[in-house]
Description:
four-stranded antiparallel β-sheet; 0% helix; 47% strand
Amino acid sequence: QVQFVESGGGLVQPGGSLRLSCVASGFNFSNYAMGWYRVSPGKEREWISIIHAYGGRIIYRDAVRDRFTISRDNAKNTVSLQMDSLKPEDTAVYLCNKFPPFSDSSSWGQGTQVTVSS
């Protein structure tokens, strides 16, 4: 059974930093590109960063480029997202999944809430 467990969210002031982590299980993690996604109030889920299977290629959405850094540890089935210079518009629930995500909607975890506010 595929499972993702995200952690590391919280309340932070604009300009602050957070580091999110996601532990994956139930599939051969090292064989797949992984992505971080977010769901903001009133918006659809969007991918924000993708890291390919062995970390050789990394992609960022324009809105987070130069502020967020994705990484992975295939030995620990973990993908992380370092978020710096956070802005109020980064407020969202952050989730991870492979990229593209599994077609089974139940594969999504609970996500971790990030709130950027003064």
